[in-house]
Structure formats: structure tokens, C-alpha cells
Amino acid sequence: MTAVAAPLSSRGPVRLRLPQKARSGLLVLAGLAVLLGAWIIAAGTVGASAKIIPQPWTVVHALFADGFYGQSLTGTWWEAIRGFFFGNVAAVVAGATCILWPRLRGFIMQLAAATYSAPAVAIGPILIVFVDPDTTKVVISALSVFFVSASGILLGLSSASASSLELIHAMGGNTLFGLRKVRLRFAVPAAAAGIALSAPGALLGAIVAEYLGGDSGIGVAMVQAQQAFEVPRTWALALLATLISAAGYIVVSLIARRFSFEMINNDAAVGRAAPRLKRYGWRRTGIPVGKVAAGVVIVCAVWYALIWALRLDSYLAKTPGDILAFLTVSEGAAEHRSIIFGALGITLRDALAGYLVGSAVAIVAAISIQFSTVIEAMFMPIAMTLRSIPLVALTPLVGLVFGRDLIGVAVLTATITFVPTLVNLTVGMKQMPRSAEDLLHAYGLGWRQAVAVRTMFALPSLVTSARIAIPGAILGAVLAEYLATATGLGHLIALSSANSDFSTLWAAVTVTTVLSVVFYALLSRLESAAVRRLSP
User: Fold this and answer.
1) What is the largest distance, in Å, between two alpha-carbon atoms of the chain?
2) Contact 358, 415 (CB under 8 A)
3) Could you report how far apart the first and last alpha carbons of the chain are, in Å?
4) Which distant-in-sequence residues (6+ apart) come within 8 Å of 163 by Cβ?
5) Quick one: which of 385, 123, 138, 99 has its CA closest to 249?
6) I want to staple 362 with a disulfide (CB 3.0 to 4.6 A). Which of 112, 329, 377, 422 is the partner?
7) Residue 449's pLDDT band (boundaries 50, 70, 90)?
């Protein structure tokens, strides 16, 4: 029998499909067009009377007409590059130390969380007393990088194939050999993601340091623009800082992609939580509490040693004992506690409001993305751009639009919370086991049940995002209070710094840092419990 081809007229309609990259690019452009349209509408309605939201073309004109941004950018960029380098070197050393000496892992990561949680606006005035302004800017930039990079590097080093490590051990290789030959290769994707995310943090740290003291840089230009109420210039500087941060993120991501490769893991227990020995009686709580206590003792010992070794003046540098006495037994201790913890209550209120709003919006967005690839392609790049906006650049804009009260601070902290929560939830929902997805289809369950099941499997991701978002929300609230409001710990830090009240300054920094580290430790335990509960 001879097969006869059907005439063209009898065939179905010919559908032209764009390549995946071209389609994704068009969707990203569509998302940017929606964002630009919303900006134009807001500038023509909400911001028209108050003149707080200029039109995009006005901002672009200011960007090119002012003509002084190049010099400001050069200084800030050089500070950020050095902070990025030193912060990531320290992160690599910390990650390798955690692998080579696992007992130090908890202490090192809590210390990293403390460096991330300590408000830069409070550290800056302390550092600038002991070192020159340029070194202060680099140190603050490096501290803004360290925790994010260390988290990604440690995650990558810990994801190595167990069978490969066991093979090296069986052949007589030690932990260092396994680190060099196996773990480093497996660590590339996660470590690259962490290092890329830290790039905007380096610029943020440099700008914050310039806010605190300097004669040039983007931070100084922002202060001058806000004091003169130059709204287009303020927006232009914020746009410039965002573009530079996004460029740093993209460049690091592309370099990492060039050196990354697909790792095939043949372990039978991929995705399964590591078995843990059950603890009974006092061991269940005694051992974790003992580790925390040991960490506190080590931190205090290092604190005392640094003050003694550097011969720091007791008027400027306060020891843990000085801070404890200031809050408990010194003259006026009750008043000191009232001031510190009263301001802390306001900061926690601001941070909690922003965290809840940002998380709620992120959950809705993550659920929407599960049912529409178009929404994901259009708006995920925009969401990642939000991560690149330096807080110092965003704060004055939020203050102009939403005011300098609870609403403005909550909007700022919601923006900080939104991105990590959205990214982690989106990944977590997509990692639902295939067997669970097959059951949903087999029983014909609706979208509500599908959302409920996906959300259940994404709970560890939600806790993981909270571990970063909650300290970030507290940090954002402190920064907003420092720059825009007259309440909270941020305002207290500004006053104590201006009045050289170093006891109050050190106490405020210590309370904020300890609280953030406590949240981090609690959420780490919740994350471990959630992973064990939902692991196959």
C-alpha cells in the first residue's frame, strides 16, 4: 500500500512557536512594561499633587543632566568591590572550617548570623572611632556580604554525594581530601547563588557607611538630595544604585554559570534527611542549651580579648559586663531598661507588621506561579530586581510615598521579606514528590487541595526563608527608623551616636543582635524538625 500525504489544506493550522529563550525574554519585557506603566500612572495620579513620584523620563533626565554621578559611583564601587572580596574570602574560610570541624558549625553560623543582624548604622559610629573612614566602609560592606555567602557556600559543601565521600574514606582519604576533590565540585551551584546574592549587599554596606560619614559617594549624594528635597535626583540615585546592584548580581551569576556543571547524584536517599540519634531525658534539651551557652562564653571571651589586645578606651568600647551592669545594677538601670526595651518593642512591631504583609503577598504570588508559567516568567525577574535595591536607596522613596510612620516602615520591611519568601516557596512547592502529584491527578482533586498539598511540602522552605527574612526585617526596621522616623531602636541609635552615649549605643546594638540570633537559632531548629517530618 502506498501512503499518500494529505494536502496542506486538510492539515491542522500551522502554529509557530518561538524558542524558549525568546519567549522568556518577551515575557520579561512584558513584565517590565507593566511595571513602567504602573509607575507612569502612579506619577500622574498619586504623586502628581504632592510631587513625590516623578515620571520615569524626568528621572532619566536627572540621571544624565546632573553630571556628577560618575565620581560618586567610582568611590562607592571601589569600597563595595573590596568589601565583596574580603567578605567572600571570610565566607569560604568559614564554610571550609564547618566541614573540617563539624562541632564548630553551629557556633560559626550563629556568629555569621550575628554579623548579618547587627545594624550597620550602629556599627559604623563605633568602628569609625577606632579605624579610618575608608576602612570602616570596607568592613561594613564585608559584614553585609559574609552571612549570605557563607550560607550558600556551606549549603553547597554539605550537598556532596554521600557515596563519593564514603568511597574516598574507604580508600584512605581524609576529610580535607574529600573537601578538595568532591565537596568543592558539588558546592558550585549553591555557593554561586549565595555569592551572587551577596553582591547587592556589598553595595548596600558601602552606601550605609557613606551615610554615616564621608565626603563623596552615592550615600553622600543621597543625603544631600534628601536634605534639599530634590525628588527627581533622589529617584535617580536610587535607580542608579539599583542598576549597579543588579549588574553585580547578573555578572556574578553569569561567571558562576560558566564554571558550574551538572552533578549527577546516585545516592539512593537523595532528599532524605540524615538519620539522627534520638535523645531522651535531659539530653534532649540539655545538649542544645549547652551548645548555646558555650557559644555565648566564646563570644564574650573573644569580645574581652579584642578590647584588651587593641587597648581600646573603656569610654568608647564596652565589654559584656559593662552592658549587663548598664541594664541591671548601674545607677538609672531601670530607666535604661525602659528606654532600650521600649524602643525594641516599637522596632519589633514595625518588623512584624512588614514580615506578615510581605510573607502573605509572597505566599499568594508563589501559589499563582504554580498555576501559570506566564506569571512566573513575567514577574520573577522583577521580584529579583527588588532584592537588588539597596535599603538606603529605597528608604527615602518609601518615606516620600507612604510617610514616615508605621505604614512606611512596614512597606519597607515587607519588601525585604517578600523576595526570599517568594523564591524559597516557589522552589519548595515545585519539589513536591511525583507520587503526591500522581495521587492528586488520580483522585481528581481540585486546585484548593493541590495548593494545600504543595504548601505542606513547602513548609521547610517557608521556615528557611523566615530564617533570613526575620533578621532582615528587624534590620530594615532599624535602618528605616534611623533614616526616616523618630521612634524605635533606629532613632535611639541615632541619638546615642550623636550624643556620644556609647553605653546606650552598645546596649542597643547588643540587644538587637542577640534577638536576631535567637530568632535564627529557633527557626533553624524548626527547619530541621520540618525537614525530618516531611522527608520520605
Assistant:
1) 106
2) yes
3) 55
4) 266, 267
5) 385
6) 422
7) low
Instruction: For the beta carbon of residue 22, count every other beta carbon within 10 angstroms.
Output: 10
Secondary element (H or E) of residue 317: none
Owner of C-alpha cell 556628577: 68
Task: Give Cα 145 to chain centroid, integer Å.
Answer: 9
How buried is residue 464: exposed, middle or buried, by Cβ count under 10 Å (0-12/13-18/19+)? buried
Cell numbers for 160: 556532596
Contact 226/237 with Cβ under 8 angstroms?
no
E-assigned strand segments in 285-330: none
How far apart (Å, rounded) are the C-alpha atoms in residues 215 and 221? 9
What rounded mean pLDDT belongs to the chain?
Answer: 74
Check residue 225 and give its pLDDT. Answer: 76
Angle between helices 231-259 and 69-100 (to 10 degrees): 40
List CB contacts of 387: < 8 A, sequence separation 6 or more. 197, 200, 249, 419, 420
pLDDT surpassing 90 at residue 86:
yes
**What's the distance, CA 68 to chain centroid?**
30
Residue 512: exposed, middle, or buried by beta-carbon count in 10 A (0-12, 13-18, 19+)? buried
pTM above 0.85, yes or no: no
Q: Which of 3-7, 17-21, 41-45, 385-389 has the highest mean pLDDT?
A: 41-45
- The three-state secondary structure class of 479 is helix
Name the burial class of residue 134, with classes exposed (0-12), middle (13-18) and buried (19+) by CB atoms within 10 angstroms of its CB.
middle
Q: Would you say 246 and 427 are in contact if contact means Cβ atoms under 8 Å apart?
A: no
Percent of the chain whose pLDDT exceeds 70: 71
Which domains, and CATH codes, for the chain? 69-262 (1.10.3720.10), 315-536 (1.10.3720.10)
Dist. CA 404–CA 193, nearest whole Å: 34
Residues listed for the chain:
536
